[in-house]
Write a structure and sequence with these properties.
There is one protein chain. The protein starts with a helix and ends with a helix. The chain has one domain. The protein has six helices and no strands. The radius of gyration is 19 Å and the shape is elongated. By secondary structure, it is mainly α.
Amino acid sequence: MVGLGLLVLRLALAVVFVAHGGNKLFGLFGGPGIGPGGLSSTAAFFGAVGLNPPFILAVLDGVLELAGGLLLAVGFLTRWVSLALAVSIGVAIWKVHLQWGFFLNWMGAPGRGQGMEFSIVLIAALACLGLAGGGDASVDGINQRSADREAAGRARLRGKI
């Protein structure tokens, strides 16, 4: 059951990060609530919040979120991807969400941004994957089982010689 839980967590996070990365890079899913997206819009936003150089960081963050989401979906390099995405979300909290407090802007109050509530949940979920790994139903899990079998085979051979 633990493997199934990690699979569900990985897939849920993958959807979130692929959607955000797609918006930052290509303007996918743009509209109310997230803005038009695309690299120029993302770079302008990054520059406005003091992230420099904005265009390079927009490309890096968009690629990290899109590729990281895809890697989480298949469970490859799960611990490293989780760490990188958690750092990215940490920067977002520091530069964007912290000033608005804890709660999201549920009422859509004009002139008020989103708090850090959702970002904290994302970091906690990424920390779970970082500590537990991708689980059995992942590329990482398959690679680990293969490495364990090879190590057990070597140990048996050493014992017989």
